[in-house]
Write a structure and sequence with these properties.
Helices cover 30% and strands 20% of the residues. With 99 residues, the protein is α+β, with helices and mostly antiparallel strands. The protein has one domain (2-71). Strands 2-1-3 form a three-stranded antiparallel sheet. Bound molecules: zinc ion. Zinc ion is lined by residues 21-22, 24-25, 43, 45-46, 48.
Length: 99
Amino acid sequence: MLKIWRLVVPTYRYRAQQDARCQTCEVGFDIVQPMSDPALKQCPDCQTAIIRIVGTPPTCVTTQRWNEIRLLSDMNLRKNGFKKLVKQSNGNYVDVLRK
Ligand SMILES: [Zn+2]
């Protein structure tokens, strides 16, 4: 059943065309998209130019991974009011989401 559904609605993989500006397009992500839909042009998180990578076999695991990446992306953390403390070389912690 799932196999048939996958044939009808394929999964496409995207990644940043040149310089990734967020975790989503740096790692790349898979998206389930009808074949009739035009290819995505921009990263959903940072709007940087992305390209579709042809020939990646569709899997459910990567869709789950995409959700995890999205959930923990700096953009999403910032949007939901989280802090992301990263230890600096001097031993202090700095909230890297603060601009
Ligand atoms: Zn991005």
